[in-house]
Specification:
CATH superfamily of the largest domain: HUPs
Shape: elongated
CATH class of the largest domain: Alpha Beta
Strand order of the largest sheet: 1-2-3
Bound molecules: glutamic acid, zinc ion
Order of helices and strands: EHEHEHEHEEEHEHEHEHH
CATH topology of the largest domain: Rossmann fold
Strand content: 15-25%
CATH architecture of the largest domain: 3-Layer(aba) Sandwich
Number of helices: 9
């Protein structure tokens, strides 16, 4: 078996908050507990959503919390040629087409594309440039199944959940599903531990790995942190921003949320020591359901 390679892949849409630090920590501990490497990839392919300086802030926050990554950070903004090449390869396989459906038509489909533009064989513009068309991949009716490292057996039938999905947006930007799959393969990532808000993306990513001739990684989806109302913690809602001056306290808090209660003698210990202890204790099977208690 190939040695474990995991990753944390934030989008630089803002600083890390408690929920994203918790996800980073889970992927870090899972990698370390399996004698793996832990990489960091900056998913900066959506400039309209990005906040200037956020990428550097995130890297400083990870470093400050003792979450040191292996090698250098891969920036997706440097990978556009690879994404374009993948579209070319899929075009040669006659798997992609351009879609010019109007927004109102798409809205009426409720998220499951009906293949309306499938007969449009030629891509109307070079992928990665602005045009009025998006690029979609044809999906077959096959069911996608995987053994999730945390959720167990999962199955998704793409024809029913999303239909032919977008690889290049009509604004010319490459879609997350494409970039994430290509780069997980490029970096030889074989274990992806991330929040279960991405559970419904996984089948699309496995499908892309298959079509591009890659071996898909194993996936494990941890419960995303929710507030007491059951809403996901998000940057938009300014949820629990983390205090730079107290990295140990933040790590301790996240460890508790991951089901590891730090013994009193380690409370206030340096982060490196907390992380060593947590690596020894780490277990995927005891992660709680993610709901934060009222504070
Ligand atoms: N960049 C994505 C996000 O921050 C996560 C990608 C992934 O872990 O697959 O939501
Ligand atoms: Zn269309």
């Amino acid at each position: 078996m190939a040695a474990y390679i995991g990753r944390f892949a934030p989008s630089p849409t803002g600083a890390l908050h408690l929920g994203s630090l918790y996800a980073a920590l889970a992927s870090y501990l899972d990698a370390r507990a399996n004698n793996g490497q832990w990489l960091v990839r900056m998913e900066d392919i959506d400039p309209p959503r990005e906040v200037p300086g956020a990428a550097d802030t995130i890297l400083k926050q990870l470093d400050n919390h003792g979450l040191h990554w292996h090698g250098s950070v891969l920036y997706q903004s440097q990978r556009l040629t690879a994404y374009r090449d993948a579209i070319d390869a899929l075009e040669n396989l006659e798997l992609v087409y351009s879609c010019q459906c109007t927004r109102s038509r798409l809205r009426s489909l409720n998220g499951v594309y009906d293949g309306h533009c499938r007969s449009q064989q030629n891509l109307s513009a070079a992928p990665g440039t602005e045009s009025l068309a998006s690029i979609r991949i044809k999906i077959s009716s096959a069911k996608i199944s995987w053994q999730d490292l945390i959720h167990g057996r999962c199955t998704d039938e793409l024809a029913l959940t999303c239909g032919d999905f977008i690889l290049v947006r009509r604004d010319g930007l490459f879609a997350y599903q494409l970039a994430v799959s290509i780069d997980d393969a490029y970096q030889s990532i074989n274990h992806v531990i991330r929040g279960d808000d991405l559970l419904d993306s996984t089948a699309r990513q496995i499908y892309l790995h298959e079509q591009l001739g890659f071996e898909a990684p194993r996936y494990g989806h941890i419960p995303v942190l929710k507030d007491a109302q059951g809403d996901k913690l998000s940057k938009q809602r300014f949820a629990s921003s983390i205090e730079a001056s107290n990295p140990g306290g933040n790590i301790e808090h996240c460890l508790t949320l991951l089901g590891l209660s730090v013994p009193a003698e380690l409370s206030n210990a340096p982060v490196a020591q907390l992380l060593d202890w947590a690596t020894q204790q780490w277990s995927r099977s005891t992660i709680p359901n993610g709901t934060l208690a009222e504070r």
